[in-house]
Write a structure and sequence with these properties.
The chain has about 240 residues and is mainly alpha-helical. It has seven helices and no strands. The longest helix is centred in the first third of the chain and has 67 residues, at about 5-70.
Length: about 240
């Protein structure tokens, strides 16, 4: 009596099972699709992070490489070489003054020039080495000619010419070079060196002016004493006839 009913319900049950299976497969596929989408997004995000990190590392490496190479422009290199020649000239003429001068103040000034410019040259050499620049080993032709003219003099003539030419003229030229480097150089290390060394050169200018004044004062004192002695020796002495009168 109940058999037809059961047979009639079988297609419905089968249809229900098929629908359930289809629904399960749809949900599973959707879940996998969502997981794949999330995975792709995470992978893309990780890749972007890695590329950004790699790019940052490459940029840092380029900067480090540039700093390590320490290259400077041609204008800065020329300034460094001219400053080196100026230091060499001051050292060389200072040694000449120690040999030829008999004036203690001139010798003291010359020794100061040697000491300060040797220190300045050593610092410049270190800077040049870091920048892969080869500095000259001797003064230029004009500076050598000045030293040659000085070597032909002696005594007060030498003292005056040394203080005037080396102490003032050369110092002005050196100061001009340093000022140009401190304001126009592209390399920060060169600018710092020039700014620091300018103060030393300015003190040399003051010392040169003071030494020159003392030389002139000493020269005037000697000429005045000579004139006084001449006047004294030229004074008329009474003759034996005048004494008898």
């Amino acid at each position: 009596m109940f058999m037809p009913s059961i047979k009639a319900s079988r297609p419905a049950v089968a249809l229900g099972l098929v629908s359930a299976a289809f629904l399960f497969m749809s949900l599973t596929a959707h879940s996998q699709s969502s997981d794949d989408s999330i995975y792709r997004k995470e992978s893309a995000r990780e890749k972007a992070t890695q590329e950004e990190s790699s790019s940052g590392t490459s940029s840092a490496a380029r900067v480090a490489g540039s700093a390590e190479s320490g290259k400077v422009g041609r204008a800065d290199e020329r300034l460094m070489k001219e400053i080196a020649r100026a230091n060499l000239a001051e050292i060389s003429t200072g040694k000449l003054a120690l040999e030829k001068s008999q004036n203690d103040q001139v010798k003291s000034f010359a020794q100061k020039m040697i000491d300060d410019h040797t220190k300045a040259l050593d610092e410049l050499k270190q800077l040049a080495q870091a920048k892969s620049i080869t500095l000259p080993m001797e003064p230029d032709r004009q500076q050598k000619a000045t030293e040659k003219r000085l070597s032909a003099l002696s005594g007060e003539k030498f003292d005056k010419q040394y203080v005037e030419q080396v102490g003032e003229r050369s110092q002005r030229g050196t100061h001009k070079l340093l000022k140009q480097a401190s304001t126009k150089a592209q390399d920060a290390d060169l600018k710092n060196y020039a700014s620091k060394t300018m103060g030393v050169v300015e003190s040399h200018q003051q010392m040169a002016e003071e030494t020159e004044r003392n030389i002139r004062s000493s020269s005037h004192g000697k000429s005045g004493a000579g004139s006084a002695e001449g006047a004294s020796s030229g004074a008329k002495t009474p003759s034996s006839t005048e004494k008898r009168d």
